[in-house]
Structures are given as C-alpha cells and as structure tokens.
Design brief:
This protein is α/β, with parallel strands linked by helices. Helix content is 38%, strand content 19%. The structure holds S-adenosyl-L-homocysteine.
Length: 466
Amino acid sequence: MQHFPIFVALAGRRVVLSGGGEAALAKLRLLLKTEAHLTVFSPAPAPEIRDLAKAGRLRLVERAMAPGDATCAVLFYAADEDAVEDARTSALARADGALVNIVDNLGDSQFITPAIVDRDPVTVAIGTEGAAPVLARAIKADLEARLPAQLGLLARVGKGFRKMAERLAPGRPRRDFWRDWYFESGPRALERDPGEDSAARALQDLLPRHLAREARIGHVAFVGAGPGDPELLTLKARRALDEADVVLYDRLVSPEILELARREARMIDVGKEAFGRHTPQHEIDALIVAHAREGAQVVRLKSGDATVFGRLDEEIEACEAAGVSWTIVPGITAASASVAAIGQSLTRRGRNASVRFLTGHDMAGFADHDWAALSRPGEVAAIYMGKRAARFLQGRLMMHGADRATPVTVIENASRTDQRVIGATLGDLSDALTEAALDGPALLLYGLAPRDAATAMPALKTQEVS
Ligand code: SAH
C-alpha cells in the first residue's frame, strides 16, 4: 500500500490551490464540502471561481503563486494543468510545509484524492493507487446504487441513538437492529415521510420491536416444503417462512418457495457445497443448533414432508441434546403429489389396503426390502430415490414372482411446471427410464398406472379386480 487512507479534519485549516481552470474547479467542488479555509492563486481564474470568491466561499488571489503563499497550509493542490508551473508551485508549497498533490501526476504527489461516495457523515473513499481509474469509477457507481440515498440522514439520526441501542445485546441483536435501520426500516420511513423528525420517530419505534425480538428464545421448525408447487405449501409453513430469521434449505426445495421467506431472513443452502458435495449431516446439525442458540427462529426447510426420507431424526436429536425447542410442520410428500398427477389414489378398496414408502437406496447402497410381499398382485409402493436402483428393483421383484406386466409409473418433478409422467411396466421399467433420460427428482409408483392408461392395460384390470 503506497498511500495510506486517512480522513483529515480540515475544519479551520488552511488549504491552498494553484490554478484557475477545469482541474482547479473539480478539486474545489470537493474541497467546498469541507470546512477548510480555501485560498486559490490564479492570474486568470474561471468566472465560477470568481463567483465563489464573491460569495465568500474561498479567498482568491489573482496572481501566480509566490514563496510563502502556502505558509501554514496543511494541503496544497497544484492544478494549473501545466507541468512546469505545477512543479514550481508544488516546490514552493513543499518548502512551506504543506502536503502536496499535483493533479494528474501521481508520482510526484505526496497524497492523492480518492473517488468518493458521499453520504455525509458516511464517506466511502476508493483508491487504486492510479492503477485502475476505470475500476474505481465502477466501484463508485456500484456503491452509489447500493447505498440508500438518505443514508447520511439515517446515520445522523442514528448517531443520537447509539446509547439507547446499547439496550440490545452486543453482537447479532445490535447488528440486526442497525442493519434493519439503514437498509429496511429507515429508508421506508423516509419514503413515507421525508425529514429528520420522522426518521427519529421511526427509529424510536424500531427499538422496542427489536427488544421484543431479542427476548424471544431460539426455536427450530422442521418444515415440509412440499413437492415444489408453492401452492402446495401449508399455511403453517408459510407462516414459519414469514417469521424466519434463518432458513436452512435442501437442494430440492424450489426457488419459488425460497422467495416466500422473510426478506431479511438469512438463507443457507445446505444442499450443496463447493464441488457439488453435500454439506455433511453433522455440520447441518451444528448450524441449526448454533443459530437457534443465538435466539434465531430457524426454519429447517425440507422438500416434501420432513418426516419422509429426510434424516429428520438426526437433526431433532441434535436439538434435544442442545436443549433447543423444535416443532414439525408436515408437508405434502412426493408420493401424494405423484398420485395426484396421475389421477390415482394411494389406497383403494379391494386393491390395496396398505401402501409402502420405499427408498431405492440407503447409505449402504441399493436398499433391501420384503420383495416377496411386494411381488404379490395388488401391492402399491411409492419408491423414492429409485432412479438409479430401477434395474435392481426390477430384478428382485421379478425374481420373487412379480408379474412383469405390473404397472410402474414414473413421475418426474411432480407438481412442478416441468412435471413428466412416464408409464411403464415392471418388465420394461429400466428401458423406459433410460429412454426418458430424467434429470429432475422422480418417484416410482409401483402397482399404479395413470388413470387414463388404466383401461388400456389388461394386466392392471386383472389386478384391480383381484
Ligand atoms: N422428504 C421428501 C423426500 C426426500 S427424498 C418427500 O417427502 O417428498 C428425495 C426423493 O424424493 C427424490 O429422489 C425423489 O424420489 C422424491 N421427490 C422429491 N420431490 C419430488 C418431486 N417433485 N417429484 C418427484 N419426486 C420427488
């Protein structure tokens, strides 16, 4: 770092500038924001500079600079836009003990003026040591757009409240309070009613709300996000999302549903990590507990129903071990959305009095099941995570005597706009899956055909009456 950034108090200090043209004016515009005593030396000043002198904003001396003119000055700007004159004036100023800046001459300058985002009293200074002026401008434009225009006023009002805000615990509660003020509640209050008084009232109202929030103890809601269609969320799930401070969500939760979370909520994707790996379960457990312990209302959002193949118990046990309170908000599981998609019911009098939820694979690989029972006519099973296990399932079931004409319907992206239904039979299941080249989540409904296709399938008819 060649130039060390500092903010210099210029109130009542002397700042001298030599020059009367555009470069001089550009610097003066900035310097006039300060409370420095400005003196300008120029034999031929621009009319604007004369006007500023007339208005008492600066002292104008209409001649070239001479030795001793920068006495007691803290800063000096050589802005004559003439290399020889700039070298002369800066040498004089340096002899008088001022720090020197030469416009457009970084090498000979003792200090430089950064690009500035001005939200007085908040000032952001951007410097690139002259390496990338374009980048400095881009960063400035970005910050200008991002920082509320009234941030200065909000900060001024906020300053008077610093002591009062200390009633909030240091750390997160206090951070959340100021964040809310500067970026949410403050700008909103000023939109409704601009002015310092209304801002002060809004800030006064904000504190009790945050004190109340702080008094809450952390809680974890295990919420089922349903199969994807946001309209299949429960009212309770919506409310939990509305009130969440932190949402930890899985890969399969659809973006439309994440949109519904409270705007200020912190959204944490625990479904993926760098290089496509999943966040390890013990890390998810630790995250849930850590946030709840800080007092956050945590929503652990899982696709479908949280209690179905969701590793819920491990997370509940982590909460229990940490003494964190928790609740479960049930959701619509993929099996319900999938039968709805094909116009069937999961159970049917005379066909199946029970239904199984199976997983195609578990931690150890392809999962084993009671194949003999499943092979009996009329059996219905919803098979989760069954895409890769399809050939294995097919083999096991047929080996145990299942009819190869038994319908198996594959529903990809159930309830989503890109939902697909693939009708197959046990015999052609793996070929049908290869052909369909699925890339979304898919559920296999074993023993059920789409309602429309049912009559076209003699095997199913027999099964239905048997
Ligand atoms: N808790 C979830 C299941 C999680 S296991 C639930 O109750 O639905 C993940 C498996 O669920 C996926 O491999 C797929 O088999 C199934 N699944 C989840 N969402 C699905 C959807 N929209 N359509 C079809 N299957 C889905």
